[in-house]
Records
---
Amino acid sequence: MSVHVPADLHAPAAAGPAAVDATTARATRTVAVTVPDWPLLAALDRHQRRLEAAAGEEDAPAPAPLDLAAVPVILLDQHRVTHAGTAAIEAGVRPGMTRRAARAACPEALVLEADREQETALFELVAAAVDTIAAGVDVLRPGVLLMSARGPARHQGGEGRLAERILDAVAELTGWDCAVGIADGPFAALLASGPGRIVHEGRSGEYLAPHPIAALRSAPVGPGWGHRGQPSATRDQRRLDLAETVDLLQRLGITTLGDLAALPSAAVADRFGPDVATLHLLARGQEPAPPAAHHPTQPLLAETTLETPLVRTDQAAFIARPLAEQLHTMLVERGLVCTRLRIVARTEGGEEMERTWRHDGALTVADVVDRIRWQCDGWITRARLGGPATGAITRIGLHPLQLAPAGENAPALWGSAGEAAQRASRALARAQGLAGEEAVQVPALVGGRLLADEVALVPWRSEKPERREGPWPGTLPRPVPATVFRERPSVRLEDAAGEPVVVTARGLLSSAPARLQVLAPGASALQRAGLRAGSGYPVLAHGAPTVLDERWWTPGGTRAARLQLVVRAASAEETAVLALSRTGDWTLEGLYD
Amino acid sequence: MGTALQIEDREQRLSRARAALGAAERSAARWGGRIDRTALQPSARSVSEAADDGLGTRLPVPGPLQTLFPRGSLRAGSSVALEGAASTSLLLSLAVAAAGEDSWCAIAGMPDLGLRSAMDAGLDPCRLALTAADGEQRPQVLSALADGVGVLVLGPDLDLAPALWRNLLGRARTADTLVLAAAPPGRADLTLRAAAQGWVGLGQGSGRLRRRRLEITAEGRGIAGHRSAEVLLPQVDGMLAAVPAGASAGAAARPAAVSERRPAMQLLPSVRRAG
C-alpha cells in the first residue's frame, strides 16, 4: 500500500515565529494518531476475515478486499447507523438513521454490526505499529492514540519526520491509513489530526478558534470509554453529556471554539460547572493540569505468574478479574484512584509488551478487567495474524502510572448519601421533560384556614410561594383527613324528622343530624368509601361544629362551620367524614380513609 | 463457645456503628453538608448486603405491621396492593416507613390526597413528588418515576392498563423501587386488605375523632394462607400505632358504644368558636 502523506503536513497552519506565552506553557506537545472511521474498518476487517475463512474451507479463491468508495458499507450499532462508507453516504445514508431507513436509501449496501470488543482488540495492531516508532503510547479510545511529542520528535529529527514515520509504520505493519496531528495539548492535536497538520508551538488557541463548536464532541474529556460500551464506568459521578453541552452552547449563540474561549473562565465555571470549565480550558488550547499526582512510598504493582501460558483469548478473562481485584484492594487501602494504568505482559521468550490506558475518572474493577482482556486479545490476534511473534504470555502485571487521592471519585463512606436524591432528580427532570412542568409537583406549606389551602402544590424546581404566617384559628386537630377534596362534593344533612340541619348564628346545630345524603356523583374517593350519590346514610356520631369566621372585619368575610361525622356506609363500615357548612349548604371537605 | 459469642458481639457492634455513621452521613447530605471523602470504602456494599442476607435490600415497615410481612420487612423492588378501607392512610404509612431517611417518594394518581395528613404521617415534603400522571405521556412518566424514586405510590384513580402495570413492576424490580398501589389491575407480590372496626372519640355533639381501629389481612408471596393484625390508624397524632394491650378485650364491644345514642350529651352542646 502506498504511503500517502497529506500535502500540507509540513506547512504549519500558523506562519510566523511561535509566540510561547505563559498560558500555553501548561499544554504538553502531543501527537494524536487517529484512524478515521475506525469502527467501520474494524467491522469490515472482521467481515473479510469471515469470508476468507469460508473461502478457505471451500477452497475457493479469497475475495478481493472491499473498496469503501465502490461498495457501500453501513455500520449499525443498536439498530442505528453509526458509520457509513463513502459510497453509502453518496447513496443518501446518514449516521443516526434506523436500519430500515438506511436499507431503503441503499438496498445493495453491506450491513455490518458494531462490535466494541473487537474494535478495541484490533486497534492493538495500530498501537503496536506506532510503538515501533515512539514509546509511551496511550490509547484514548479505539481509533485514537495520544503520546507526548517532544522525545520522539527529537529522536526522529523533527515533528514532520515523526509524523511521516508514524504514517509509514502504520501503513506498512497494518495496512490501514491513519492520520497524525501534532499540537500543544490533546484537543488541538486531535483536531489537527483530521487534516493532518502540525500546529506551531504556542499557536494551538489560534488553530482551535475557527472550529465549529460541534468539534467539542471529540474532546478528550468526559465519559471515557467505559465498561461494555456504557458511556463511562463512573457515570454516576460524571454526568457531562457532550452532545447536550454542544447543543446548549449553540443555543446560547456560541458557534465556534473561539467564541467559547473568549468567555472569561470564572464566568464559565460559575454558569456551567467544572465539566464545561474543562472544555473551556481545552478550547483555549490548554490542558487541564494533571490531577495532583500521588507518589506512594512503595510503588504499587499487581502481578501474576501464569502457570499455564496464555494462548487463547478466552483464558484472558479468567486471569483478569482476580488481578484487577487485587489492584483495586491495594488502591482502596491507600485511598487512591488510578487514572492511568500500564498493563505489562512478559512472554515465554522473555520479551515484555506493555500498553498504557488513560481513563478520565477512576478505573473500576470491571474497567480494568476489560482492558486486560482487550489487550491480551490484541496481542494474541496480532500473533495469529503473523505480526511479530510474541509467544505465549507467562506473566501479567498492572502498574498504576497516575495515582490521585480518591477525593470526589470515592463513593460515600458509610452508605449511599445523596445518590438517591441525584437519581430521583434525574427521574423527575425526565418526567417534566416528557409531560410538561406541571406534571411533577412538590408540596409547599403555605398555611390557610381550609385543609385544601394549607398546602400548595408547585411544579418541581420552581419557586415556592411564601408561607403566610398564622395564627389560623379553627385549625383541625389531628388526625386530619387523608383525603381532602379539591372540589368539595355537596351533601345534605337531615335530622331524624327529615328536616335539614343547619348551623345557627351562635355556632350550634339546629338539631342532631341523623342522615347524610350525597347529592351529586363525582368524587371517586367517596364512592370507594361506600358513599354513593343519591342515597342516605345513617349518622352514628357527630362532634360539635367549629366556626370558621374568615375575614369578618371586611365586607367580603365569610362564615363557615366544620363538623366531624361518623356515618355507616353501604359497606356497613363506619366511615368518618369532615363536613363543611357555608351559607346553609353542606359540602364534604375531607374523608378519613 | 465464649469466643464465638464474643466475635458475634463484636460484629454486631461494628454493624451498629456502621449503621449509625451511615445515618449521620445521610442526614448530613440531606441538609447540604459536604463530607470530605478521602478514602474509598471497600465494604460500602457489604454493609447493605449484610442487611439483606441474599434476598435483596430489605425496606422497613411500620412496627405494628411487621407481623404481617414475611421476615418483617419488604423487599426493595417488590409490590404491595392495598384494598378495602383506609387505603390512603395505609399507603402513606407504608411509604413513610419504606422511604426512611434517604429515599424519594413519588405519588401518582391521587389528586385528592390530603397533604397535611401525609406530613403528619411523617412523609418528608423535601423528598416527595406528586404527579397527576394523566395525558398521553402517562406510561413514560410512570416508567421514569419507577426508575428513579425509591418508593412509587400509585393511587386508585390511576386506572392503569394491565400491560402498563406489569411493565411498571418489571422496571421497579430492576431499579429496586418499591411499588405501593391501591386497587391495581393485576397481581402484586403482597396484598393487604383493611377493614375498619370503628372510630373512637366522637360522641353525640361532643368530642372529636381520635383513633380508628383497623383489621389488616395480608396474603401473597411468602405468606402461607394469610396473616392478620389489628392496628390503630390513625392514632391521635396521625400515625399508625399498635393496639394497646389492655384495649383489645373491649374491641368487640366498642363499635356498639358509638352506635348507641347518648341523649345526655345533647343537653350540653359544647361550642368551639374560632374567630
Note: The two ends of chain B are 71 Å apart (CA to CA).
---
Amino acid sequence: MTPTIKVENLRVSIPLAAGVLHAVRGISFEVAKGETLCLVGESGCGKSLTSLALMDLLPSRAKREADRIELDGADLLKLGERDMAKVRGSTMAMIFQEPMTSLNPAYTIGNQLEEGIRLHKGVSASEARERAVYLLEKVGITGASSRLGQYPHQLSGGLRQRVMIAMALMCGPDLLICDEPTTALDVTIQAQILHLLKDLQREFDMAVILITHDLGIVARVADRVAVMYAGEIIESGDVDEIFSRPTHPYTQGLMNCIPVPGKTAYGERLGTIPGIVPSMIGEMTGCAFANRCAYAEDICLKTLTTRELVPNHAVRCVRAEEVAALNAGLDTATASAGSPA
Amino acid sequence: MLVYTAKRILLAILVSLTVSALVFSLLYLSGDPATALAGERASQADIMAIRAAYGFDQPVYVQYFKWLAGAVQGEFGESVYFRLPVIDLILERLPVTMTLGVCAMIFALALSIPLGVLAAMYPNSLIDRAALLLAVVGQAMPSFWFALMLIVLFAYWVPILPASGSDSWQHFVLPTIVLGYYATPAFMRLTRTGLLDVLSSDYVRTARAKGLRPAKVLFKHALRNAIIPVVSLAAVQFGFMLTGSIIIETVFALHGAGFLAWESISRSDFPTVQAVLLLFSWFYIILTFLADLLNAWLNPRIRVA
C-alpha cells in the first residue's frame, strides 16, 4: 500500500546573525491511511517546524529542503505556491496548538468553517452550511446550526478546538496534522479531544500526524512513534515496541521522567536528563545527544548511524545494539533482584 | 449591539453637556464680558446697559440654560463684530472647512493605508524604508512651511495651481495635500504595526492553512483586524482636520470655520467663539460615536462590552 505521506530527508534551516540554525536535520517518515504517527520531543526539537514544512507554511525566513515529500503519490516539492494552496486545507489539513487564538475574532464560526470548502470544492453556500452543521455535530457540538452565527469569543477553549477540528475536516483531507492539539486545554477536555480525533480518524480513514511532547498522549493514540531530539528523529517504531523497549538513551531518559502508577514510590524523585540541548547553529558532527548521554564514548562524537534493531524499530545511535543489550541485562538483573529467592 | 449603541449615545450626551458647560464658562474666564464689550472709555452706565442687554445680570445658571436651549435649536445669538446671526456666519464658512477636511482625510487614508500595508508585507524592504522616511518627514515638517513650499513650487515656479481662494476644486488641491499629509504618518505607522502584528497571528496562519489565496488572507483575515485602531485615530484626526485647519486656511486664504474662530478670538467676539467651539466639540463627539459604532461592527468582541 502506498503511504498517504512520504517524507525523505526533510531539512529546515533558518539563517540567523550568528549562523545558520539547522532546526530540522534530515528526517524521514511515512504515514499510511488510517495510521497515526506521533512526533514526540521537547520544545525546540523541530517537531512543529516539521509540520509547518509539510504544509509549506514556514516563516518566510526559514528554508525548506527535502529529497522527497509525497502526498498521495504527488510530489509536493514540485508544486508552486498556487498549486500548494489547493492542497492545503483540502487534501492536507492542520489543527494548531492554540484554539484560543487560532480563530479569527472578527468572523462568525460559520463563515470561517465554510470559506475553505467553498474555495476548494466550489460548493454552494447552503451545501457548505450543511457540511459545517454535519461536522460540528460530528465533533460533538450541540445546537450546531445556531453555533454557526456565533463568534469565537463566545466559545470556550474546548469548543474552539472542536471547531478547529471540524474546520480541518471540511474538505475531507487524506492527511490531518495535529500540532499539540490538546496542550492548551485542561485535562478532562484533553481526553475528550483525543478520543474524538481517534474516532474521526477511523470514520474518515485519514492518515494522522500528531505532534506532542506528552508521552501519555502518545501511548493513548499512536500507532507509531518518532522521537525527535535536536532536529532529528532519534528513535522510531511501533508504539508498543518503543514503550516496552525504549533503546535510545534519550528515549529512555524521557520514559524515566514519567511517574508510573504502582511503581513510582510516593515522594520519590522522578528522573531527569542532565545537561542541555546543544546549539543547533552550524554543522554538527556525531550524535547531538552525546554530551548528555551516560553511554557516550569517543565514537559517538564522530559518527552517527541509524540502526534497525528489529523490523519497525530504528534507533539513531552508533551503539544502539550495545545499549539495547546493556538494558536487557539490566532488566533481567532487576527482575531477578525483585523476585523472591 | 442595540444596548451598546444606546450606551454610547447616553455617553455622548453626557460628554456634550459637560463640554457645553466648559465652553460657556470660557466667557467669564477673561473677566467681566460686559466691561470688555463696552470698551476702554465706556461709562458705568454703558456697562450696566450692556450687562442688561446681554443678560449678564441674570444668575449664571439661568444664562447657561438660556444659551444651551438656544444652541440646541441652532440659536447662538448675534456676532458682536459682524452684527449678524452667528449661525449664518458659521453656515457660510462651514462648507469650505468640510470640503477641505473630507478631501484631506481621503487623501491621507488613500496614501497611508496602501503604504502601511506594503510596509507590513515587506518589512525592512526598500518600500518600508521609503514609507518610514515619508512618515518622519511628514511628522517633522511644520505644515505652514510645507504649505508655503507647495505654493512656491506649484503656484509660482510651475504655475499650475492657484495659491489662494476657494472658488474651484483646484483651490483645494494644495491645502488638501498639506492637511492630509500631516495626518498620513500616524495612519501609516499604525496600519503597519497593526498589520505586522496580525500577520504573525495564529488566525492568519489558520487562514493560510485553509489554502486561502494570499489576497484573501490579507484583506479578509488580516486587514480587518489591523484597521481597528486606525478607525479610532481617523475619527480624532478628522476632528483635528476640521478644527485645526486654522493655519492652513490662513495660508491659503480659505475662509473656513477655523479661520472664523481665529478671527473671532482676536476680536473678542465671544458669541461666535462659543458657537464655533461648541459645534466643533459636538462634531468631535459625533465622530467618536461613529468610530465606536464602526469599531463594534469590525470587532464583535466590543459589541458585548
Note: Chain A touches chain B through 29 residues (CB under 8 Å).
